[in-house]
TrEMBL record:
Protein name: Galactofuranosyltransferase
Keywords: Transferase
Annotated Glucosyltransferase 3-like C-terminal domain residues: 201-364
Keyword Kinase: no
A matching Pfam family: Gtf3_C
Amino acid sequence: MGSPLSTPEQLAPGAVLDRSPLGAVRAAAASERKVLLTTPVPQQTTAWTKARRDVRHLLRSSGYQLLEVPAGGSAADWLRLHRGLRERLARNGHILIEYPFDQRKRLYGLLVLSRLLGVRLYGLIHDLDSLRFPNSPVEREIAILRLFDGLVSHNGTMSQWLRDNGVRRRMADLNLFDYLTDEPPATWREDDIARPLKVACAGNLSWGKARYVYDSRLAALRGVQLDLYGAFYESDRVPDTGLRFRGAFDPDRPVLHDRYHFGLVWDGTAVDQCAGSYGQYMRYNNPHKLSLYVALGLPVVVWREAAIADFVERCGIGVTVRDLRELGSIPDRVDAAAYRRMARNLVPLTEAVRRGDFLHDALVRLLR
């Protein structure tokens, strides 16, 4: 297990970060006028809505002005949007758009407008549909992403995929989504490694995204207590695996019903690998559930071939496995001293992810 990275700036040597309440972006570009274009976010208990709400809160506190894009709006709505941008931006400003952007056809108009105003157009990637969904054309998504002057990507693996597919724009790696919550950390972690190994599994539990939790092979797990938390659980599909569904929680106030050794970062259709489109997407993305566990001070178990496996190992905050059936052997691999090191390594990352340091750091590197 590699040496821990105690703060986000160690992921990008030389970055100078401002930890003030207004954030590092204002310090990096104090004279800029900045606009975040937003789209309506439904009130759901999902990672998608939580991530976008956190981004908006952090950027508003960093000096961004928020403008909501009309969903399928009329020509008059878009004229008002254009007028609002003109009023808010100076020639040294920029527009930041969360991607995927619902109004994709309007991006071309926004690109033209940004050029007329003399401002830059940046994208913050939440997801790449061409990697997540097999039927989403890569060429179309790449053509859209090439419209931006720069991008915040999830990690180095995703950034390299974008470059390999023709996106030649400035990029900054996020490395980890921030997770804003007032719930106290470390409340949910066991003090020492032991059997049974207690593992929390949080996230979207629908059959389409997390079919592995309904897999009868989980019944073969011995010495493991696996508890499920999340929305869209389909209890009628559950075999007799011994798993416990502990309900869903408000993502802004995550509350678990037990203390755990690890949080599980897994997706897809199978227990022997992260299979299927959602599982394979983990080769490229930063799963938001990793941010949840870090915010709660909980070490993690992650698929060894996931893009974020390297981050977990370098930071020393968890273990990697090829197959969920390895869970029962983790107490043989991780002794009490190693587990306590993981808990210590999490402390600065927990503080950073709760402050919003990862987003601020990425934007400083993108904009400088």
